[in-house]
Write the structure tokens for this entry.
Amino acid sequence: MKKQILLVALVAILASGMLFAQGAAETKAEGPIEITFWSLFTGGDGEFFDAMVKEFNASQSAIVMKNDMVKFDNYYTKLTTALAAKTAPDVVVVHQGNLLNYVPSGSLLALDSYVDATTLADFQQAPLDACRFDGKLYSLPFDVHPIVMYYNKDLMAKAGITKVPQSAQEFIEASQKVKQVTGKWGMAIDNTTGVYKAYTLARLFMSMLAQQGGSLLNADATAPAFNNAYGEAALKWLQDLVHVYKVNPTELDYDAAMNTFKLGEAAFYFNGVWATGTLEKTAGLNFGAAPLPAIMGGEAAWAGSHTLAIPVQKNQDPKRVEAAMTFIKWMTSHGEMWAKAGHIPTRKSVAQKSEMKALPYRADYAAAAAFALPTPRTAAWEEIYGTLSDKLEFAVTKNQNPKAALADMEQTVKNIIASY
Amino acid sequence: MIPGNKDTRDGIIFSLPFLVVYLAFMIYPLLSGLYISFFKWDILSTASFVGLDNYRTLFSDEKFYSSLWHTLQFVLMTTPTLLIAGFVMALAITGTSPWKGIMENVFFFPYIFSMTVVSTLWAWLMQKDWGIFNQVLITIGQNPVSWLTNEKLAMWSVALTTLWWTAGFNMVLFGAGIKQIPKEIYESASIDGATYLQRVRHITIPLVSSTTVLCLILQIIASFNVFGQVYVMTGGGPHGTTRVLVQYIYETGFKFFKMGYSAAMSYILFLIILVVSILQYTLLGRKEDA
């Protein structure tokens, strides 16, 4: 027993020694610089990201990148506390929509003096501008991931549909045909919270508002702007698919929607481009991908964007910042590897690469990046987004009166904005 | 008294290792949480003092009330069932059955798993379209059940999972309580012709009452703090109908960056648990003395 305690104590001492040793290695000048990274890629895209980091480490000998994977659910919690304690790693990934949580407090390093004009010019304008706050650049966009449409070619052929539906009415007709002829679901839009909230509803709602010329919030993101005819048309379509035309299952959560489409049980499916990698690996699924159709007339699609940023440290070591920048530049300029996960790369030079052009599906929806919707710039966004998803879930699964639903959502969003 | 032995000094020295850790990791965070609850703070920027504003907001926050209500539902669902299940299991393992050793292990087994493992497992079992539960129901000609996606059932499903997971712990406590009851009491009752149920009712239940009070208090505290199972199994859905208070506290703090508000809600939850525990302790404790 005593021996065991001694052993435990010994291990503890050794382990704590290693902690300090890691700190000491940071200042060591000899050999390659070791820099650290936290990624939130745990799903289908995780393996592609790890492969890129491996390739980066193999491609040069000056920098060794250590990648630590954090579960998506906990990622921002961990990042926030690390930033508050100023112990964050050298490079972090932050969604463009979450940058506003970290930029005003000065937790991220302004990158303007570290990126040359040629590199900047190689980035597509819209996603790059989305990383600028008050004229300063706080991160570089790694990808854009808009919501797109996936369709099952076999089911469409069986139902005798030759043209991919585009408008709200065409979707209803095609879905009804699928249901009548094949007995399968026309659509698989998730509408219930499971592991994830029914974000797809919020994403489609946002997209469809913009497709009619409206928007979720007003221009300076200080008030809701959806309680009108645009909002009603969008919500009604989502509700009617489930309750009037009965071509979309109810109580369908995110994973179930994905599985429904994977198993060939639904003809049309909407999700972010990150689903492509997973769907490709599904044996026997003959599918196509396209930018989000102009369901409500115009072109617009919700989109997220992974960006790479450098946290501010207590003692910022210029050498490590430089190494971090090298890593970020390498990663963004090898976007064709990242595109395998489904995402759309952000650098013009990547789009020209033959490896990029050889990838199936991506070319079909790459155009979607052009009409990607920026995330509203308000600190209240995360709460608005989550709350609206819940409210839309209720409205769609319960077939709530759309006018009442929108009025309630409007009041809730007003209260949320007022609380920040 | 042994010469040279200073009891007070030694007492303090021997308690120090614990006290230091306790002060640093329990008392200090507890107080600093109270302090934070008077500020508007996003963790990263400088905090600004807002007095009692956070507490004022809280009382008009519909989501706070609904989350508290969902927590209360969970407490009401799990506390009696877990106590009864634990007690019945304890009876089984302290009885005369030749299987009692195996039963003890089987009953306690789920408790050794982590919350995430248990919740993920049950979320799969209860999955609407492919889960085993519904597959079994379909095979025997029943309609599938929306275990986790129906607002009326979701919380019950989480409660059922919790029952499976933690009943074994109450069994251990009750088992220890039952084993302390002298055999003679049962023997003389048997001689007087008392049946098994009469013995349980008139001997076991009254004599384990202190264990019952302990279990009840521990159970209510644990149930009020429910978060993990709900978060993993339903994510608070459908449409927020299983969002519990601790989940809302977590979201306001770490997702919405309202640390002060989050701390204020934690303190309300703390007060509720404190009051409930004191009430139980005094009311039930007094009854026992009488």
Q: What stands out?
A: Chain A is about 45% helix and 15% strand. The first helix of chain A runs from residue 2 to 25.
